[in-house]
Design goal:
Length: about 400
């Protein structure tokens, strides 16, 4: 383990944050183009939303491969291969000629993007102790928070000035920049004695041991279901905000940034308090907020009261809670698995995006021109997140303490 203070930490942290930004940039930057894509490809909203679900599905599958590969060959070479795939797929997305091609290419783009977050979590587990890992992840969320905050704004500008294809050309350029940073600033963090053989039986056994570990599953499902709610928002909000409430593409980016600003502020608070109170207390506070906002979102979705102001008020606390839950639930899930951090990180990364693909597809299939599908899906995901934390983590710990 290393100390978080040295100069190397100050250089490493922004690089890790950029490698984590593949998903928010690839998703959030093109959200304002959803209504335009329906016109460009002469299709409907549900088909356009499949470009998001395809990305989320690819992003869910890819960590299951990258985790074991990174545990065998190391973090740097795995990142290099994945970033190269991302660049090629992004360029092909910019050249897509119909919606079916774009859906398939978004899946391929996600296969390249999926290495960044899973390997970054493994690197943090390689280098830092439990509390420092939680603090590092929170600080990284503060930095990477600029991506979902600025991406819709930048996407809106690119969309108006240069068309939707320019968004994917910019993403290809971002992938190229990441390759340069990996070469210049990222050292290999996996010690030789922790490298695991890459064999199907070993990999399957590793995932099997994780899936039968109730404590691990409790932490992972708590975060995964909260993320699934976020992806319901990503899938539904362009149509709800732009088509239903008449918000412009640029103003949509501003409203999106308001929610993300709450996430960044909460991440900064978590990074300061986690050293004093520990990841578990901060996680507990986040889960309480999640449960309360789940009730609020169900109420707004089912009644339709309050219009855009009340809808925004019901959404904002969820983004704040995400920054209390995500870093703390991740380090808690990985704490017991230093010998297979890549594999544990892979499964922890796959489930949020797998559930996110389902929630996004549900919102698309349920699309009825109202906020109902988005808000009800988000509310149910929030309540299930809090329930799994209570049932799989809190109650077993209480029983063990009184035994």
């Amino acid at each position: 383990m290393i100390d978080a203070a040295p100069r190397r930490f100050r250089i490493l942290l922004p690089v890790l944050a950029m490698l984590t930004a593949f998903a928010p940039l690839s998703i959030d930057m093109y959200l304002p183009s959803f209504p335009m894509l329906t016109q460009a490809f002469a299709t409907d909203a549900s088909r356009v939303q499949l470009t998001l679900s395809a990305f989320l599905l690819g992003f869910a599958i890819s960590p299951l491969v990258y985790g074991p590969v990174a545990d065998r060959f190391g973090r740097r070479p795995t990142l290099m291969v994945a970033a190269t795939l991302y660049i090629g797929a992004s360029a092909l997305c910019a050249l897509a000629t119909d919606i079916d091609h774009l859906i398939a290419l978004r899946f391929l783009q996600a296969l390249g993007a999926g290495a960044g977050p899973v390997i970054v979590r493994a690197i943090i587990r390689d280098l830092y102790s439990h509390n420092e890992a939680a603090r590092t992840m929170s600080l990284m969320m503060v930095i990477v928070g600029a991506a979902p905050m600025l991406a819709p704004l930048l996407g809106g500008v690119l969309l108006v000035e240069f068309g939707w294809r320019s968004i994917f050309w910019l993403l290809a350029g971002f992938g190229l920049l990441c390759i340069v940073l990996i070469q210049l600033a990222l050292r290999e963090s996996l010690p030789p004695q922790f490298r695991r053989p890459l064999a199907f039986k070993t990999t399957l056994g590793g995932y099997g041991s994780l899936l039968t570990n109730a404590r691990y599953l409790g932490f992972v499902l708590t975060g995964s279901l909260l993320f699934a709610g976020m992806f319901a928002y990503l899938s539904g909000s362009p149509f709800v905000f732009i088509e239903l409430f008449g918000v412009s593409e640029r103003l949509y980016g501003v409203l999106f940034a308001v929610n993300v600003a709450g996430m960044v502020i909460a991440a900064s608070i978590n990074s300061r308090l986690v050293r004093r109170h520990g990841p578990r207390k901060m996680l507990r506070a986040g889960v309480i907020i999640v449960a309360l906002t789940g009730v609020a979102q169900l109420t707004v979705g089912l009644t339709g009261i309050g219009g855009l102001p009340l809808l925004m008020a019901a959404l904002f606390p969820t983004f704040c809670a995400l920054s209390l839950v995500a870093p703390n639930v991740t380090v808690s899930a990985l704490q017991d698995f230093p010998h297979m951090a890549g594999t544990a990180s892979a499964l922890a990364g796959a489930l949020p995006f797998g559930l996110g693909a389902l929630s996004g597809a549900l919102v698309g299939a349920w699309h009825d021109g109202t906020p109902l599908p988005m808000m009800v899906t988000m509310g149910l995901c929030a309540l299930m997140s809090a329930t799994f934390y209570l049932v799989l983590v809190v109650r077993p710990e209480r029983r063990a303490a009184t035994a």
